[in-house]
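Our preliminary data section would be incomplete without showing what the modeling component actually yields. Below, a chain of 454 amino acids is followed by its predicted structure, encoded as tokens that our downstream tools consume directly.
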Amino acid sequence: MLNEMRALTVSELTHQIKQQLEGTFFHCVVEGEISNIAFPASGHVYFSLKDSGASLRVVAWRTQAGKFRELLRQGEKVEIRGSITLYAPRGEYQLVANQVSPQGVGALYAAFEKLKNQLRLEGLFEPFHKKTIPAHPRKIGIITSQSAAALQDVLKTLRLHRPDIETVLYPSLVQGADAPASIVNALNIANTRAEVDVILLVRGGGSIEDLWAFNDEAVARAIFASTIPIISGIGHETDTTIADYVADLRAETPTMAAKLSAVSQDELRQALDLFEMRMTGVVREKVTKYRRYLHRLSLRLQAQQPAHFLKESRQTLGYLSEKLEHLMLKRLSCYQQQLTNYEARLNPRHLVGQQAMLLQQLSGLESRMADAVKRKQTQEEQRFEALVGRLNNLNPLAVLSRGYSAVKSGDQLISSVALVNQGDELTIVLSDGEVIARAETIIPHENSPHNKGI
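Predicted structure:
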């Protein structure tokens, strides 16, 4: 059986082992003690990780080593996260380190993730809870240790960034078992005094244990309850704490937190320069507009000068004088023509002929008037007789004179048997008098709608 197996080259075997090894241990966590550490000029870090039973070669490439270089010390017990690779030329496998933390930090990470998930579910990280950072705060509060290098970095940055803004320090512990309560107390003092517009919660870099106070639940809830906006600037760019998640704004470093706390004076200068440029444009436009307006007024004033006005008035007066003279001559000519006509009409011979003609017309008019009056009189007499005949036909007395009578009960004229009751006293009106009677029997006609069956 062994004779039938194909022989593998060293490279082929190493390649298969490499595939199996790297495919199985592409992500692993190993703990042990650092030994044989070396820092060559390339920037990479080489060392061994050992325990009582074995030793493992470890390499930290330059791109990653800077994140945890301070933890890489001879004899330090650490926990390394990374992947296994096989270096074929020497046939050696090694661990490529991506993250290094002191041994035992894994429990801290578990606690960190547990609290983070709990607070996330409660909504403490939600964006709609974040308060707006004012662009131009009057005062900036700083919560950190009085002796911290981060405080000096923040103050220096603010002096360059916004020297006009006053700062208020609320001293607090930022490391150790008493730090969480101290931070909460500083936050409460700042909110009680309400003298600042934004708070910077800052601390310099360090290990996860150094920054653990900012992963405390009480600190997170105090940040969330703050009525003053909070900017967190804790550790380095790669450090993220629970406080960063809850804060209204997270800065990568304390220096960056100072820069984010207010609009810089350079930005203000740029805004002022832009405003000045815009205002200059507006003023220039206004000046140009009013210059044009003044020019139009100047032209109108020149047109209304007394000499110009007098010249126009003289021209108008000359035109009106000529027009008046023409009208007067025309009117005088008309009057002369009328006077000539009146003189001709007042001539005696013309008057005699006119008198005879008017007398003849008057005689004809008198004859026509007499005929018209006679015809009108005849028409009115005929119309009067017709009206008298119609009036007689409508006169109740004329009807009574033909044998008819009218019956009344009191002042009411009786037009139906329904208006009379048996025993009623009735007045019968005749053409030449009245008869008083009493109703003994009421007999309605058979076809009368008022037949009561009497």
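The radius of gyration is 64 Å. The mean pLDDT is 86. Preliminary results of this kind motivate Aim 1 of the renewal.
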